[in-house]
User: Fold Non-heme iron oxygenase ferredoxin subunit from Microbacterium soli.
Amino acid sequence: MSAQRVCSASGLEMDTPLRVELDGIAIAVVKDSDGEIHAIGDRCTHGDVSLSEGFVEGKTLECWAHGSAFSLETGAALNLPAYEPVPVFVVQIDGDDVLIDPTVTKEV
Ligand code: FES
Assistant:
């Protein structure tokens, strides 16, 4: 499996998660306020809800359902009720293309 284009970097709105699905894996793509682009698993580990419908705050994405925040850098759940991390995917930028390989997660 190789990295696939999911969107353009310039078209990604800051602090507004974009939900993409690659090979059946839901991924939340986020451009933070520093302009850095992250990709984490889109399913909250507390309940089966989409994190991309949540709120970006700095380097975190907060679940809209019960407020657990997940690190965009490590995937760690930073507060209860969620306690298990979400996967963090490696993001590649090629020109203006944002590329993600859903089989490659960051070692954190
Ligand atoms: S479903 Fe996400 S914190 Fe409960």
